[in-house]
Amino acid sequence: MPKIRTSRTKRPPEGYDEIEGILDDYAKKMRDAENEDHEGKRRAEALWPIMRISHARSRYIYELYYKREGISKELYDWLLKEGYADANLVAKWKKAGYEKLCCVRCIQTKDMNNQGSTCICRVPKAQVKKGVVVECQHCGCRGCSSDS
User: Fold this and answer.
1) pLDDT category of residue 90 using cuts at 50, 70 and 90
2) CA 139, CA 130: separation in Å to the nearest integer?
3) Gap between the Cα atoms of 61 and 87, Å rounded
4) For 95-142, what is each residue's pLDDT tens digit?
5) Can you tell me the distance from the alpha carbon of 81 to that of 9, in angstroms, rounded to the nearest whole number?
6) 14-18, 28-32, 65-69, 129-133 — which is least confidently predicted?
7) What's the distance, CA 83 to chain centroid?
8) If we measure between CA atoms, which residue out of 93, 62, 91, 66 comes closest to residue 79?
9) What is the pLDDT of residues 59-73, one digit of tens each?
10) CA atoms within 13 Å, Cβ hemisphere of 4
11) Residues 6 or more apart whose Cβ sits within 8 Å of residue 99
12) Which of the pair, 23 or 103, is modelled with greater confidence?
């Protein structure tokens, strides 16, 4: 979550005012997701909307810098430092095979049921039986392998 700006924080770099509106929209969506009623949902299910919004915001900043080249390196580094994007997730997106990764937790082997493997959402759709709904228990992803 982005830090609250105070008078002590360093001024944002040039170009921030162009994307500030979109980042504010993501902040509003995040607040709504955090305040949403989660009664009747599993504990992990209540966090899925928050993770999706965080992923979308990180992906927006990643594509703005790497794909569209719409922001400067200084602004990109500042956004990562201030917590607008998940730096670990962005670092994985730059590697081959992780271009569609939904969250870093899905590639960690220690949290999975089958020790030594990754999350079910990382399995290519061609290898999953027909009619089986694949859904990650951590983030709600339905498939983020590069082959999907």
Assistant:
1) very high
2) 22
3) 10
4) 888 888 888 887 777 766 666 677 777 777 777 777 777 778 778 887
5) 12
6) 129-133
7) 12
8) 62
9) 999 999 999 888 999
10) 1
11) 93, 146
12) 23
For the chain, domain boundaries = 1-94, 97-148
Report the distance separating Cα 83 and Cα 98, nearest Å.
21
Q: Two tokens at 139?
A: 């983030």
Pull the structure tokens for residue 110: 């220690």
Instruction: State phi, psi for 124 to the nearest 5 degrees.
Output: -60, 145
Distance CA 119, CA 111 (A): 9
Spatial neighbors of 88 by CB under 8 A, at least 6 apart, are 104
As given in the structure block, the two tokens for residue 92 are 């994985």
For 83, the token pair is 């917590």
